[in-house]
TrEMBL record:
The chain crosses the membrane at residues 635-664. One of its GO terms (molecular function) is cadherin binding. This is Cadherin domain-containing protein. One of its GO terms (biological process) is cell-cell junction assembly. Keywords: Calcium, Cell adhesion, Cell membrane, Glycoprotein, Membrane, Metal-binding, Repeat, Signal, Transmembrane, Transmembrane helix.
Length: 830
């Protein structure tokens, strides 16, 4: 067979060569197997590759590498090439090799190697020189280290053949792969171990619980090293597992959680399909049985007894009762009820917040003296039923509870919730008001002591007898002051003062006729001048601070007073009376005010009366009104003024108003004068109206603004000139106040100069008008400033007289102007 295959390969090589295609590959089968590794024989693939040939994993290659050789011109057939190529099989190396010698991997050989040592083999790539070594003469490859396929399953290397002497390339570099052959060196593991699962109790056989999975690091594509089989090592009686899928199921029916809640089973995973020699791993699975409602509630006892004192408060819990249920959660929730009428009338029961216990509460007050015991029939039932387990029921239970009422030493009890008593006002201190009584509800019938709680009432108008409970007044009472009094009475046992009860007592003060009536009038009674005889002027009523029960009021005129010629009184017998005019022709001018005395009686016993003097005012009334109302002029005449006097007063008022308006108008006109800065005449007088050069402010014939704005200097000048001092003194002030005097003030005619000075001073001191009115009248104020400024900010300086020598020295060009100035000054002097 091997000879046949060799002949077939040689035929394929010959066919490829005859076709002249370097890229055509000839394939053949090689039954030679590398059995050192114990692996089954694999196919051998012979390939002709151009330059570098890469072998795929899992195949066995014989490679003949061919290089095209360029022939010189005139050479032989260009398609003729020498036959060269690599010859090797697929390389395998066993993992975890622990032998004393390096592990033989395989052999590299070139078909150009004649075995004379002329060919040298070189190895490079992954692990070359460290893990893998090569015999450079024979091409044998060895593994020097133990390898682990789970860390790296193959290595890529490169082989090259050179001439040992010339170092020329015999075979080009080619790539090949050394695969690490797997062995069963890894046991199965459970990544998420241990496992936790749950299944309802009472589940049927075969109920799925959980699926677990184990992993094996060995090669799943080679052999049975990674083929896992599951089994139960511990807990087979309760659970089973599928050997292939790892699904755990129940193996026992009706497992009861109340009997056993937790199960721990051990699961084994074994490779090599579970055969002998396979590796195994195990894990623990904790399985919990979850609760279902399969247990009915049960009271531990069929009869209970509970002691409740008679002082227990209504609505408060007096006891608890519980029916046991072995289930959990909502499966153990309970509801309770009282099934007999006797117990339901006095007590109620409800489940607590956890819905486990029944809380018994009191619905009505207990009285040991009336009933000393009660019997309650109590039923407890589950609120969440599971129909699958109804055959385990019934899920209810009943018990009897006897409640014994305990006798308690109670505080005294008043037979009434409150008392209402009365007493007449003005009664003397010590008058009996009423009696309160309290009883001891206990059998002992202890002695009771009464008192008034003054801290609660704050009144000391009443007292109470400690033993009898009789209430008396301690002072005379006034109904018109306070008509009702509230007091708090306490009753306590003498033997046990802490047992105290209270009751409210209300005392009404009864009225006696101790206040006289009086006529109620808010203002004077109006009598119109047009009133006729017999006409009702006004209806009057009386008031009394006493109670209305004293009867109606009666009215009359005093008997000891002469009859009133103007008015009379009519009793209407309904607690009112009417004032009637006896005559007509009333006039305010004749008599404005009239007096009428009225006597009023009340209906009390004894009857009390009082006399009231009413004032009636006569006036002309307005028409069309329901009640008489005086016209407005009546108010003026009430002051005693005639019409003529009123007219005179009005005229005087108008004249005063006219004078005030006129005065205000005159003052406003004066205050509307323009200010000096914005006056048109100031602007007009300061404009130079000629074109010649030279001169000063005197050419403008304007005001000296510095003089106008220096009130202190003006006031000082007034003082000096009024004292009629010599001219030199006034001239000196003028020099100080306004810098230099005008030439006109030094004129030989002193009368004119004095008049002008006085007028200037008077104008400056006049506060009723702007000062420039007078200044404009006399047409001159001050002299020109040598600095060329009329600023009002300049302060007074010593007198300054221009010197013509200075002018000659400083300004030769203005000498003619200086002469003109002196000439003009002479003209002013004349």
């Amino acid at each position: 067979m091997r000879a046949c295959l060799s002949s077939l390969l040689l035929g394929l090589f010959a066919l490829q060569r005859s076709l002249g295609s370097p890229s055509t590959a000839g394939l053949g089968l090689n039954t030679h197997a590398h059995n050192r590794t114990g692996l089954p024989a694999g196919p051998v693939l012979n390939a002709h590759a151009h330059n570098r040939t890469r072998l795929s994993a899992g195949s066995v290659l014989n490679a003949h590498a061919q290089n095209r050789t360029k022939l010189p011109e005139g050479g032989k057939d260009p398609h003729h090439r020498p036959k060269r190529g690599w010859v090797w099989n697929q390389f395998y190396v066993l993992e975890e090799h622990i032998g004393p010698e390096p592990q033989y991997v395989g052999k590299l050989r070139s078909n150009s190697d004649k075995g004379d040592g002329s060919v040298r083999y070189l190895l490079s790539g992954e692990g070359a020189g460290t893990i893998f070594t090569i015999n450079e003469s024979t091409g044998d490859i060895h593994a020097t280290k133990s390898l682990d396929r789970e860390k790296k399953n193959h290595y890529v290397l490169h082989a090259r053949a050179i001439h040992s002497v010339t170092h020329h390339t015999v075979e080009p570099e080619s790539e090949f792969i050394i695969k690490v052959q797997d062995v069963n060196d890894n046991a199965p593991t459970f990544p998420n171990s241990p496992f936790t699962a749950s299944v309802p109790e009472m589940a049927d056989i075969g109920t799925s619980v959980i699926q677990i999975t184990a992993t094996d690091a060995d090669d799943p594509t080679y052999g049975n090293s990674a083929r896992i089989v599951y089994s139960v090592l511990q807990g087979q009686a309760y659970f089973s597992i599928d050997p292939k899928t790892g699904v755990i199921r129940t193996a026992l029916a009706n497992m009861d959680r109340e009997t056993r809640e937790m199960y721990s089973i051990i699961i084994q995973a074994k490779d090599m399909a579970g055969s002998v020699g396979g590796l195994s791993g195990s894990t623990t699975v904790n399985i919990t049985l979850t609760d279902v409602n399969d247990n009915p509630p049960r009271f531990p006892q069929k009869n209970y007894q509970l002691y409740v004192p008679e002082s227990a408060q209504v609505g408060k819990a007096v006891g608890k009762i519980k029916a046991n249920d072995e289930d959990l959660g909502i499966n153990a929730e309970m509801e309770y009820k009282i099934t007999n009428e006797e117990g339901a009338a006095m007590f109620s029961i409800s489940a607590d917040s956890d819905k486990r216990e029944g809380v018994i509460s009191l619905k009505k007050h207990l009285d040991y003296e009336k009933k000393k015991a009660y019997t309650l029939s109590i039923e407890g039932a589950n609120t969440h039923l599971d129909p699958r387990f109804s055959h385990l029921g019934p899920f209810t239970d009943t018990t009897m509870l006897k409640i014994i009422v305990g006798d308690v030493d109670e505080a005294p009890i008043f037979p009434m919730d409150y008392y209402i008593m009365d007493v007449y006002e003005n009664a003397p201190a010590g008058t009996d008001v009423g009696v309160v009584t309290a009883q001891d509800p206990d059998n002992a019938r202890g002695k009771i002591r009464y008192s008034i709680d003054e801290s609660a009432d704050g009144e000391t108008l009443f007292s109470i007898d400690d033993n009898s409970g009789l209430i008396k007044t301690t002072a005379s009472l006034d109904r018109e002051g306070v008509a009702w009094h509230n007091i708090t009475v306490s009753a306590a046992e003498v033997d046990n003062p802490k047992l105290v009860s209270f009751v409210q007592v209300t005392v009404q003060v009864l009225d006696v006729n101790d206040n006289t009536p009086y006529v109620q009038t808010d203002s004077d009674i109006i009598v119109c001048e047009s009133t006729k005889a017999g006409q009702v002027i006004q209806t009057i009523r009386a008031k009394d601070r006493d109670n209305f029960a004293n009867g109606r009021f009666s009215f009359a005129l005093p008997a000891d007073v002469p009859a009133n010629p103007n008015f009379t009184l009519k009793d209407n017998e309904d607690s009112s009376a009417s004032i009637v005019a006896r005559r007509s022709g009333f006039s305010r001018a004749d008599q404005e005010l009239h007096q009428l005395a009225v006597v009023v009686w009340d209906g009390g016993e004894p009857a009390l009366s009082s006399t009231t003097a009413l004032t009636l005012r006569v006036c002309p009334c307005q028409r069309g009104l329901r009640s008489p109302t005086c016209r407005p002029q009546a108010f003026f005449s009430s002051a005693g003024l005639s019409t003529g006097a009123l007219i005179a007063i009005l005229l005087c008022v108008l004249i005063l108003l006219a004078i005030v308006v006129l005065f205000v108008t005159l003052r406003s006109k004066k205050s509307k004068k323009e200010t000096l800065i914005i006056s048109e005449e100031d602007i007009r007088e300061n404009v130079v109206t000629y074109d010649d050069e030279g001169g000063g402010e005197e050419d403008t014939e304007a005001f000296d603004m510095a003089a106008l704005r220096n009130p202190e200097a003006a006031a000082e000048a007034g003082k000096k000139c009024k004292r009629r001092k010599e001219e030199a003194q006034c001239e000196q002030f003028g020099a100080v106040g306004v810098k230099t005097l005008s030439p006109s003030l030094s004129l030989p005619v002193q009368d004119i100069q004095e008049v002008i000075q006085l007028k200037v001073v008077e104008a400056d001191q006049d506060t009723s008008g702007p000062p420039y009115d007078s200044l404009q009248t006399y047409a001159y104020e001050g002299q020109g400033s040598p600095s060329g400024s009329i600023s009002s900010l300049d302060l007074p300086d010593p007198p300054y007289e221009p010197d013509t020598l200075d002018l000659d020295a400083s300004w030769p060009d203005v000498h003619s102007l200086a002469a003109l100035f002196q000439e003009r000054s002479s003209q002013h002097t004349l």
